Amino acid sequence: MMKAIHVRLAQEQLEEIENLSGAGYDIDKIAMYLDVPKMELRKEFNNPESFVRYHYDRGILLVDAESGIKLAENAKVGNITAHQQLMKIRSLQRLESLRKRIMYGEEID
């Protein structure tokens, strides 16, 4: 019988999760990078209320938001391509919100 190993991560490691997820790495690669048991980190990741999941999702959001802000700045000064890309992002975000509302009953702000 194997003992369960509980993954305890320092704040620095949680910040590394943010950086790595923002760079596109999946949770298994992040486990290898942090040198922690893959199954245990994945178990934490699969819990939507865990610190691991929060920091993983936050890392993606930070990169997406930074890119979106720069795109919006370029659209404001008349860059047509940036405007088109920004409109596509907004459309996809609305679609995702509607999907969550329909499938999970989540409220849309």
Short description:
The protein is mainly alpha-helical.
What does this structure look like?
This protein is mainly α. 72% of the residues lie in helices and 0% in strands. It contains 5 helices and no strands. The longest helix is centred in the middle third of the chain and has 26 residues, at 51-76.
Keywords for this entry:
109 residues, mainly alpha, 5 helices, flat, disordered N terminus
Structural class: mainly alpha
| β-strand number | 0
N-to-C span = 48 Å
Which of globular, elongated, flat, extended, rod-shaped describes the shape? flat
- Low-confidence segments, ≥5 residues, pLDDT <50? 1-5
* Mean pLDDT score: 89
Main sheet properties? none
- What is the string of helix and strand elements? HHHHH
| Strand residue content | under 5%
Taking all Cα atoms into account, the compactness measure Rg is: 18 Å
Tally the helices: 5
Fraction of residues in H or I helices: over 70%
Write the layout of secondary structure elements.
Elements: H1 11-22, H2 27-34, H3 38-45, H4 51-76, H5 80-104
